[in-house]
């Protein structure tokens, strides 16, 4: 079988297939033209390994007032799962900032990744999983034989991304300030006023 056929059959990317080869999960037959081909028996065996691990569909919103957005994300994720014949999946959701790495289900995902219990994490947008450090998270997942699949990759300018990140940071800080005792809040406010002057 050609690499493309193997990827389609397993529902993985070519990068993941290369990682499987590197880790010895499957061995290619090298043709005289130096191309990879795979034995059907090896592919079937690998299907068994891949299918044992579940897929996590993850949705996140920042506040309780965004429940409609949460429902839209879940519908999109489950639609993707149905269209790709994925039956062994779990939907995990969090309500909280993408800057907060102490989210309950996010931490559960990290644990599942490190225990090699999931083969893929699927999100609608990259920032639903984390606001910062997406590439690092991707590398950690790759090292544990898990792939992150983003359904919608927005074409944003650098300015748009920076503005969204800045807004997220400000929202996160304002939430922390609102949680402070009024005395401490006033103290911080006075410091900011003094800096302005």
Secondary-structure topology with pairs:
Blueprint: H1 3-10, H2 14-22, E1 29-30, E2 36-37, H3 40-52, E3 54-61, H4 67-83, E4 89-95, H5 104-114, E5 118-123, H6 126-129, H7 134-143, E6 147-150, H8 158-179, H9 182-196
Parallel strand pairs: 3-4, 3-5, 5-6
Antiparallel strand pairs: 1-2
Descriptive report:
This protein has helices at about 5-10, 15-20, 40-50, 65-85, 105-115, 125-130, 135-145, 160-180, 180-195, and strands at about 30, 35, 55-60, 90-95, 120-125, 145-150. The chain folds into three domains: about 5-50, Multidrug-efflux Transporter Regulator, Chain: A, Domain 2; about 55-150, Rossmann fold; about 160-195. It contains nine helices and six strands. The protein has about 200 residues and is α/β, with parallel strands linked by helices. The model has no long low-confidence stretch (mean pLDDT about 80). About 55% of the residues lie in helices and about 15% in strands.
């Amino acid at each position: 079988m050609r690499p493309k056929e193997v990827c389609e059959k397993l529902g993985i990317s070519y990068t993941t297939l290369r990682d499987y080869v590197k880790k010895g999960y499957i061995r290619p037959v090298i043709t005289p033209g130096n191309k990879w081909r795979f034995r059907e028996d090896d592919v079937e065996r690998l299907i068994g390994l891949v299918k044992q691990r579940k897929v996590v569909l993850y949705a996140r919103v920042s506040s309780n007032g965004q429940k409609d957005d949460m429902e839209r994300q879940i519908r999109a994720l489950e639609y993707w799962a149905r269209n790709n014949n994925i039956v062994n999946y779990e939907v995990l959701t969090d309500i909280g900032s993408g800057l907060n790495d102490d989210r309950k289900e996010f931490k559960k995902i990290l644990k599942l990744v490190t225990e090699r219990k999931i083969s893929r994490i699927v999100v609608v947008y990259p920032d639903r999983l984390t606001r910062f450090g997406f590439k690092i998270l991707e590398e950690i997942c790759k090292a544990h034989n898990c792939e992150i699949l983003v359904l919608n990759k927005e074409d944003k300018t650098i300015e748009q991304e920076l503005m969204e990140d800045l807004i997220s940071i400000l929202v996160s800080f304002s939430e922390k300030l609102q949680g402070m005792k009024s005395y401490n809040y006033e103290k911080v406010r006075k410091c900011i006023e003094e800096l302005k002057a």
